[in-house]
């Protein structure tokens, strides 16, 4: 039972998915989009409420990086709230959601029972030193192996032996390519630093439609700040962090053609970092839901 006053591993998160799906069978369907290296299900929720209105489809994934526990905590809170709080009923008439709560369940399990600060997947690519895992957010086929990724199998940012070497990134690729005409918005949820991340990550060049992305990113930033005064900053990955090739939202924008393809780095700014107290989950959920609804509606108004 998720109570959002603690952090959970994928079995508890998937139990919540099953429970809420049973509660709203006419709105939610679930499907497996693949299996992780260790055989865990990569579960996707489709939230599709029958409605007369023109819907905009949003794809969102969290916990691509294992140690970023606040990401699945925040997104499960958000979808639980959207589904159970009547105040948001009208929002479900406007948006369909394709949601992967845990993209890296092997890594997440390892952060619960082995190394709390593990980031990568747990695939075995025959490292001489026995190092495991690939940084799934360096494994997408956009500037694969370029700046900000490592060829060292023991590195935290190891890009993998080839683009899409990981079953977790293959699953996202295949699902998005199969649904790319429907999907209008893609969000990759990370922590920490309180940033709205815009493409690209692999180059200092900005996309041609960067002004549109920046305008929407600022809408998210400002709506999020209103709830609890939490300060976020909006910009491209290299402007705010560093160059990072092979990232998910770069591939989704450039190769799948999803215009509004971006990321967010949730709380905090480094005081607790990845070890953010669970007492902040609900506030993170509240402010991030406000921000997401503001940006989703702004994009929908434009489409
Ligand atoms: O380095 C990353 O993958 C992300 N930061 S984190 O501290 N959560 O690891 C930034 C996202 C970069 N996104 C793309 N390059 N598309
Ligand atoms: Zn991350
Ligand atoms: Zn609050």
Automatic annotation (TrEMBL):
Q: Which UniProt keywords apply?
A: Carboxypeptidase, Disulfide bond, Hydrolase, Metal-binding, Metalloprotease, Protease, Secreted, Signal, Virulence, Zinc, Zymogen
The main location is secreted
Spans through the membrane: none
Name the catalytic site residues.
265 (proton donor/acceptor)
One GO biological process term: proteolysis
Q: Which cofactor does it need?
A: Zn(2+)
- Establish whether keyword Secreted is in the entry: yes
Q: Which GO CC annotations does the UniProt entry carry?
A: extracellular space
Alphabetized GO MF terms: metallocarboxypeptidase activity; zinc ion binding
Residue ranges annotated for the Peptidase M14 domain, each copy included: 6-299
Q: Where in the cell is it found?
A: Secreted
Superkingdom is Eukaryota
Q: Give the protein family.
A: Belongs to the peptidase M14 family.
Question: What function is annotated for this protein?
Answer: Extracellular metalloprotease that contributes to pathogenicity.
Question: What protein name applies here?
Answer: Zinc carboxypeptidase A 1
Tell me the organism.
Notodromas monacha
What lineage does UniProt assign to this protein's organism? Answer: Eukaryota, Metazoa, Ecdysozoa, Arthropoda, Crustacea
**Shown chain mapped onto the complete sequence:** 115 to 417 of 421
């Amino acid at each position: 039972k998720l109570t959002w006053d603690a952090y959970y591993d994928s079995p508890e998160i998937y139990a919540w998915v099953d429970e809420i799906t049973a509660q709203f069978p006419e709105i939610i369907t679930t499907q497996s989009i693949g299996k992780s290296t260790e055989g865990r299900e990569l579960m996707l929720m489709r939230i599709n409420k029958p409605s007369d209105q023109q819907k905009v489809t949003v794809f969102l994934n969290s916990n691509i990086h294992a140690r970023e526990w606040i990401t699945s905590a925040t997104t499960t809170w958000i979808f639980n709230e959207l589904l159970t709080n009547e105040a948001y009923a009208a929002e479900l008439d406007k948006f369909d959601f394709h949601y992967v709560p845990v993209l890296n369940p092997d890594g997440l399990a390892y952060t619960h029972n082995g190394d709390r600060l593990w980031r990568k997947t747990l695939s075995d690519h025959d490292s001489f030193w026995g190092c495991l895992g690939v940084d799934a957010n360096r494994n997408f086929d956009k500037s694969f192996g370029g700046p900000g990724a490592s060829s060292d199998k023991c590195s935290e940012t190891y890009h993998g032996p080839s683009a899409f070497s990981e079953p977790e990134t293959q699953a996202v690729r295949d699902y998005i390519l199969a649904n790319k005409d429907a999907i209008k918005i893609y969000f990759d949820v990370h922590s920490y630093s309180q940033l709205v991340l815009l493409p690209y990550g692999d180059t200092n060049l900005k996309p041609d439609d960067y002004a549109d992305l920046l305008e929407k990113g600022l809408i998210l930033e400002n709506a999020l700040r209103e709830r609890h005064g939490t300060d976020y900053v909006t910009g491209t990955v290299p402007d705010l962090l560093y160059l990072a090739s092979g990232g998910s939202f770069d591939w989704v924008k450039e190769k799948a053609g999803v215009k509004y393809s971006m990321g967010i780095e949730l709380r905090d700014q480094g005081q607790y970092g990845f070890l953010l107290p669970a007492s902040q989950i609900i506030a993170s959920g509240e402010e991030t839901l406000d921000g997401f609804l503001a940006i989703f509606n702004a994009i929908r108004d434009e489409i």
